[in-house]
Specification:
By secondary structure, the chain is α/β, with parallel strands linked by helices. It has a single domain, classed as HUPs (Rossmann fold, 3-Layer(aba) Sandwich), CATH 3.40.50. The strands form two sheets. It has a six-stranded mixed sheet with strand order 3-2-1-4-6-5, with helices on both faces. The relative contact order is 0.14.
């Protein structure tokens, strides 16, 4: 017992944080991360992956997971850790830099004027900001010779997207675990946290006493906070309400897009072509 205690005391802060991922949260974080990587074939030998670190908890955890997987996994690939400064305050910029140092992440930060560009936007500032951010990240990743970018979207983002698409977009679709870029040739987007729950990301951050950026955007500060709320926040609250009477609601939402019966769908699209149930109606 004394020998084990002595060994634990010699661990550096970075090693302690890594230990919580592969030990304390082995099942809920590390196991689900590896499961997503393998189930959806997200990483291949020879990949050069740009891990996009926003300054928030999700992308910070993703960075550590990718770093550990490169070290201990059975895939041989390169990782570049990129962070875009969209116009952070000096304090927020320092927070991103200090967290990267604390986590042992060799982060490359580049500056843009995204916040300034969306500052006067009164409608959908988050959507516009996200699109601009991604465009900058794709281009910078390409410059670094990467063929993939990894984003920190998790399981909760996936199920929220399903409901958002249905309730606000009149369509059935979700956030895919991977997809090719429409604008940057040879680039693919992957989401290795696809099966990791947000509550476990929060628990990991709290366990290690880590503090990350929330939304540091200046655009939303120009909108009446009482009136402004994101659609994702509305959906998150809806799911929490539904869960009170149905504990399985989250897994059922996720499962709904894995178990689509096309014979029970009125219409669908494939490769840009619209089809309806009438196309095959009566055909045996």
């Amino acid at each position: 017992m004394e020998e084990n205690t002595s060994k634990k005391k010699t661990l550096s802060p970075v090693q302690e944080i890594e230990r919580t991922i592969v030990k304390t949260y082995r099942k809920d974080i590390w196991g689900r991360f590896v499961k997503a990587v393998e189930r959806y074939e997200l990483i291949s030998d020879g990949d050069c992956i740009a891990v996009c670190v926003s300054g928030g908890k999700d992308s910070a955890l993703l960075a550590k997971l990718m770093q550990l997987y490169q070290r201990y996994g059975d895939r041989h690939f390169e990782v570049k850790f990129l962070s875009m400064d969209p116009g952070y305050s000096e304090a927020n910029r320092r927070r991103v830099e200090s967290n990267a140092e604390l986590l042992g992440i060799p982060l490359t930060i580049f500056s843009t004027n995204v916040f300034e560009a969306v500052d006067d936007t009164q409608t959908s500032p988050c959507f516009i900001c996200a699109r601009m951010r991604r465009g900058h990240l794709y281009r910078r990743a390409k410059e670094f010779g990467c063929n993939k970018i990894a984003l920190g979207h998790h399981y909760d983002d996936v199920i929220e997207t399903i409901l958002m698409s249905m309730l606000y977009g009149a369509q059935v679709q979700t956030m895919m675990p991977k997809l090719p870029s429409d604008n940057v040739e040879g680039m693919e987007l992957i989401r290795p946290l696809y099966l990791v729950r947000e509550q476990d990301v929060i628990a990991w951050a709290n366990y290690n006493g880590l503090e990350f950026l929330r939304c540091a955007c200046t655009a939303t500060q120009n909108i009446d906070n009482k009136a402004f709320t994101t659609k994702r926040a509305e959906i998150k609250n809806l799911i929490a309400t539904l869960k009170q009477t149905n504990p399985l609601v989250e897994s059922n939402i996720f499962g709904s897009v894995e178990n689509v019966n096309l014979r029970k769908i009125i219409g669908y699209q494939k490769d840009g072509e619209k089809r309806t149930f009438l196309d095959d109606y009566g055909v045996k």
